[in-house]
Every structure is written in structure tokens, then in C-alpha cells.
């Protein structure tokens, strides 16, 4: 069920970013999934997402994937030492990710990105704190909680 | 027991570097094209809905812009007519009231038309209507807000005029269907094709009537019969009544 929901959300964000509104929704989705879970398949999800985005947006193939897996790895590493589910961390991490991603790929207006990123990350942190506890406390594939 | 994400990360990194390497040398162009083509077909589904709404918006914008364009064109025509009239010399501009033609008698005849000025604008029957220095006609009837103008081609119109070259006097009569006749010219007077015909002026003490030197038109044909008392000439106005847009009423 968890994988089904994640797949649906992933595809929705991918389509949303590609066809409806040029905002890095997939990046934020990967970031939020990485905060919520710590599983190896997230890296592969990042690779697939990057390949799709690069193919459609005519970026050099693999660059977005590289950015995504580095971001996921950084989050996993940070997660082991600090509390990453806090609203402050989610918002700062989202903003940093959006700013760097926009600087690298110039996808949209950076201030617009920051503004939307703030709103989305805040909403996400609210949802996470309200509904995410069950998932957070499930043992994951790396053995962490 | 804590598992490390490092192996998964390293494998992913290897895959990504391989993708970048292969992509760099163009080996993954086929894959990239396939993804792009598949997604672009999806894009058509999204964009067709979006474009239909965009099309509606654009259609509405076109209607608004065309309306604006028409308004601008009307304003431009008004401006041109007023400027032209301002440069005319026979009648002072201060005596003239601009009137827009709002109704015409017909495409062919143009023997009268309706202007958007009436008694509320101090317009009365008998007032002369001009365009630049050319005579258009005379106010025949008025209502509060509109007036009927009989053009010089109208059979009800009649006034004295003269050949500008020979000063031969005659009477202008409208013949209907766009025709004007210069009648009652003495046989002894010399008139030629191409001569200009202007009003002689028959204003009364109140200023009503035709002022002098308004251009009626030019002579295009002459009918001279030695046994007749007078000679007649066909006159052609310089104005195209069918394309007139605005005229000026002499209110004083």
C-alpha cells in the first residue's frame, strides 16, 4: 500500500512539474520521502525521476539524477545525527534544495521557487506531524527508526 | 542493527555516472527520445485542454481588440475630418457644427442622409451643410436629435451658382440619383468642361442660405441648343457622398 501511494504521488508530481507548473515538485517529493523513510529504493527513484526530467526538459542526461541521489544521501547522513522531522529543518532543507536546483537548472524564478517552497514544505511538515507518525516509527530496510 | 545506506548510494552513483557518461557520448539518445515522445503524447492531452481554454481567451481578446480598433479608427476619421475642415478657408470653423452621418438614403442615389445633430444642437431647416469648402447640401427637416440633409443631388435642392472661370450665372438643380444640373445659363455665356462651379451666395439678413464660393463641383458635360433660351451643364461634385462620414453644419 505504501509503495502504491508513493508511486501514484511520484507520477502525479512528475506530471505536474512537466506539464502543469514548472516548479521542482519531484525534488520536494524525494526530499519529503527521504525525511519520512530511509530505504535504498529511494535512490533508484531519484535516478528514474532524474532521467525522466532530463529527457523531457532537455537537460544533460543524468545531472538531475546525480543531484537527487546526492541530496538523498545527504539527508540520510544528516538524519542519523539530527532530528530531521522538525518543521524548521524541513523548510530550510526544502529552500536550500530548491535554490541549488534552480541555480543549476534555471527552471523558474528563484524567488517564486522560494515562496512556493516555503508554503509546500510547511504544509508537508504539518501533514507529517499529523499523519506521519505511524510510518516514521516503522522499522525500515536500513534498520533505523 | 543499523544498516548503512552507503552501498545503495554507491550503486546509484555508479549508475548515474554511467548514465552521464553514456549520455555524454550520445548512446542514450534513443532512450531519451523514447521518453520524450511518450511524455509529449501525454502533454498533448494536457495542452489540448489548456489550449482550448487559451483559444477561448484569445478569441475574446481578439473581439475586444477589434472593437478597440474600430473605436480608434472612428476617432481617427473624426480627427481627420475635423482637421481638414479646420484648414478650409471659405467658412470660419467657429460657425460649423460637426455632424456624424448616421443614416443614408441608399448606396446608389445618396440624395439625402441623416446626421446626429438636431434642434437640441440649434440645428434648423435651411442650414447649409459642407465638407471642407465643398457644398454637401441643406438641412431639410429636423427632430430633437437628428436632422435630414438633402444633398445637392436631391431634386428638392435649387440655388444659384456660377462658373468660376467665366462667371456665368446659373441655377443648380438636383436631378436625383447622384446627378446635378447647372441650368438657366445664358447661351451667350461661355462654359467649358472642367470649369469649377461655386455658389454665388444667397444668404438673408439672418445669415440663412448659401454662402458664396462653396464648391459645387466641376462641369462634365454641356448641352447647348441654339434654339433654346438657356444652356445646361452636368456637374460632378468632388465629394463622394457614399463615402462621407462626417459633415459640418453652418449654424450661423
Query: What percentage of amino acids of chain B are in beta strands?
Result: 25-35%
- Average pLDDT of chain B works out at 84
List SSEs of chain B in N-to-C order.
Answer: HHEEEEEEEEEEEE
Number of helices of chain B: 2
Q: Label the structural class of chain A.
A: mainly alpha
Unreliable sequence segments of chain B = none
Gap between N and C termini of chain B = 109 Å
Q: How would you sum up the global shape of chain B?
A: rod-shaped
The total strand number of chain A stands at 0
N- to C-terminal distance of chain A: 19 Å
- Which blocks of ≥5 consecutive residues of chain A have pLDDT under 50? 136-145
Task: Encode the helix/strand succession of chain A as letters.
Answer: HHHHHHH
> Any idea what the shape of chain A is?
globular
Largest interface: A-B, 31 and 29 residues
What descriptive keywords fit this protein?
heterodimer, A: 145 residues, 7 helices, B: 252 residues, alpha+beta, six-stranded antiparallel beta barrel, 31% helix, rod-shaped
Task: Walk me through this protein's architecture.
Chain A has helices spanning 2-20, 25-36, 41-57, 63-79, 87-105, 110-131, 133-136. Chain A is mostly helical and 145 residues long. The longest helix of chain A has 22 residues, at 110-131. Chain A is globular. The two termini of chain A are 19 Å apart. Chain B is 31% helix and 31% strand. In chain B, a hairpin with a 4-residue loop joins strand 4 (134-142) and strand 5. Chain B has 2 helices and 12 strands, in the order ααββββββββββββ. The model of chain B has no long low-confidence stretch (mean pLDDT 84). Chains A and B meet through helix 1, helix 3 and helix 4 of A and helix 1 and helix 2 of B.
State the gist of this model.
The complex is a heterodimer of chains A (145) and B (252). Chain A is an all-alpha fold and 145 residues long.
Topology (SSEs and partners):
The complex is a heterodimer of chains A (145) and B (252).
Chain A: H1 2-20, H2 25-36, H3 41-57, H4 63-79, H5 87-105, H6 110-131, H7 133-136
Helix pairs in contact in A: 1-2, 2-3, 2-4, 2-5, 3-4, 5-6
Chain B: H1 6-24, H2 29-86, E1 96-104, E2 112-115, E3 128-131, E4 134-142, E5 147-151, E6 158-163, E7 169-176, E8 179-186, E9 196-199, E10 215-223, E11 230-236, E12 246-250
Antiparallel strand pairs in B: 1-2, 1-12, 2-5, 3-4, 3-12, 4-5, 6-7, 6-9, 7-8, 8-11, 9-10, 10-11
Amino acid at each position: 500500500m505504501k509503495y502504491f501511494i508513493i508511486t501514484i504521488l511520484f507520477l502525479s508530481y512528475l506530471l505536474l512539474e512537466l506539464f502543469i507548473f514548472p516548479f521542482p515538485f519531484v525534488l520536494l517529493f524525494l526530499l519529503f520521502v527521504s525525511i519520512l523513510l530511509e530505504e535504498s529504493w529511494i535512490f533508484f527513484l531519484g535516478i528514474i525521476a532524474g532521467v525522466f526530467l532530463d529527457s523531457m526538459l532537455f537537460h544533460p542526461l543524468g545531472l538531475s539524477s546525480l543531484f537527487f541521489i546526492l541530496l538523498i544521501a545527504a539527508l540520510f547522513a544528516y538524519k542519523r545525527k539530527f532530528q530531521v522531522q522538525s518543521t524548521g529543518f524541513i523548510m530550510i532543507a526544502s529552500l536550500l534544495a530548491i535554490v541549488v536546483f534552480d541555480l543549476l537548472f534555471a527552471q523558474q524564478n528563484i524567488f517564486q521557487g522560494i515562496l512556493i517552497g516555503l508554503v509546500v514544505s510547511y504544509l508537508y511538515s504539518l501533514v507529517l506531524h499529523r499523519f506521519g507518525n505511524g510510518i516514521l516509527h516503522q522499522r525500515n530496510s536500513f534498520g533505523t527508526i | 542493527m543499523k544498516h548503512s545506506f552507503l552501498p545503495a548510494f554507491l550503486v546509484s552513483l555508479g549508475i548515474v555516472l554511467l548514465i552521464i557518461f553514456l549520455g555524454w557520448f550520445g548512446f542514450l539518445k534513443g532512450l531519451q527520445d523514447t521518453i520524450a515522445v511518450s511524455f509529449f503524447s501525454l502533454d498533448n492531452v494536457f495542452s489540448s485542454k489548456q489550449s482550448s481554454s487559451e483559444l477561448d481567451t484569445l478569441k475574446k481578446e481578439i473581439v475586444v481588440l477589434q472593437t478597440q480598433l474600430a473605436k480608434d479608427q472612428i476617432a481617427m476619421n473624426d480627427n481627420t475630418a475635423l482637421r481638414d475642415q479646420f484648414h478650409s478657408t471659405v467658412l470660419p470653423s467657429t460657425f460649423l457644427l460637426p455632424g456624424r452621418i448616421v443614416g443614408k438614403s441608399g448606396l446608389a442615389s445618396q440624395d439625402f442622409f441623416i446626421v446626429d445633430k438636431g434642434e437640441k444642437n440649434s440645428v434648423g431647416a435651411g442650414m447649409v451643410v459642407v465638407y471642407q469648402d465643398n457644398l454637401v447640401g441643406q438641412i431639410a427637416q429636423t427632430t430633437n436629435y437628428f436632422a435630414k440633409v438633402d444633398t445637392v443631388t436631391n431634386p428638392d435642392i435649387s440655388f444659384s451658382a456660377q462658373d468660376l472661370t467665366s462667371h456665368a450665372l446659373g441655377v443648380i438643380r438636383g436631378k436625383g440619383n447622384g446627378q446635378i444640373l447647372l441650368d438657366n445659363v445664358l447661351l451667350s455665356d461661355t462654359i467649358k468642361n472642367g470649369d469649377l462651379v461655386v455658389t454665388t451666395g444667397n444668404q438673408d439678413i439672418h445669415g440663412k442660405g448659401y454662402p458664396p464660393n462653396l464648391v459645387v463641383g466641376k462641369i462634365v458635360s454641356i448641352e447647348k441648343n441654339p434654339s433654346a433660351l438657356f444652356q445646361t451643364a452636368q456637374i460632378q461634385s468632388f465629394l463622394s457622398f457614399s463615402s462621407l462620414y462626417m459633415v459640418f453644419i453652418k449654424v450661423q
